[in-house]
Write a structure and sequence with these properties.
Length: about 230
């Protein structure tokens, strides 16, 4: 049996990283870790506490340091619990999503969450996705993937995803949000979004999710065999 490796999947908002990473992990018997959900959870708790990313950065950093994150299996899914609360659904609102980007740029927040993420990945056999996994969190990961798509394609997918949850939003608004978030994520001072050295770039426009999953699984199997 091949040894299991660390897999880092990075990319911009709306690139489908979460669903792809989840399916890759399921296919190979790996543990899936959604780091973006962890930042969204901090944003959710900050909103609930009435904290603002611009004026309350220190307080949000302290809040992040107090939170206990745990991914639990339930009905075939890994759901995120924070201090025992299942936040998997409440963190997916547009309001939380928009706040998670500026909150993820707070150095103290990243410090706390990166430490937690590295601890989760220490034993290997994990598929971890986010914005800075290959560049910051797991720079020595055996497999690195940069998964992306055009802003227009990502907006289309996001609109469909929201509609399936009963949330209707104009595609032009979604596209503007995505473009603004891309700019913030790629130009921030702390751990900006970029393709890490050695990462395989996959542009998923025109690809079915199953094709993307199969491509990444093949890369991982080759890395396992090379050990």
């Amino acid at each position: 049996m091949s040894a299991k490796v660390q897999v880092a999947i990075d990319g911009p908002a709306g690139a489908g990283k979460s669903s792809v990473a989840r399916d890759v992990a399921r296919e190979l018997g790996y543990v899936y870790i959604d780091t973006g959900a962890m930042y969204r959870a901090v944003a959710y708790r900050a909103l609930r506490a009435g904290l603002d990313a611009d004026t309350d950065a220190a307080a949000i950093g302290e809040l992040a340091g107090r939170l206990a994150f745990e991914f639990r299996e339930a009905d075939g899914e890994r759901r995120l619990h924070v201090d025992g609360e299942d936040v998997s659904e409440v963190i997916r609102t547009p309001q939380v999503g928009n706040l998670s980007s500026p909150i993820s740029a707070i150095a103290a927040v990243r410090e706390h969450l990166v430490a937690a993420q590295r601890a989760m990945a220490q034993a290997g056999g994990v598929v971890m996705e986010g914005r800075d996994i290959g560049t910051v969190v797991l720079p020595a990961a055996r497999v690195k993937v940069f998964l992306t798509a055009t802003p227009q394609e990502r907006a289309r997918r996001r609109m469909k995803q929201l509609a399936e949850k009963g949330v209707h939003q104009d595609i032009d608004e979604i596209l503007a949000d995505i473009q603004e978030r891309d700019h913030r994520d790629s130009t921030r001072d702390v751990a900006p979004l970029r393709r890490s050295e050695g990462a395989v770039e996959i542009v998923s426009d025109g690809m079915e999710k199953a094709q993307v999953v199969a491509t990444i699984c093949q890369i991982i199997r080759q890395a396992e065999e090379a050990l």
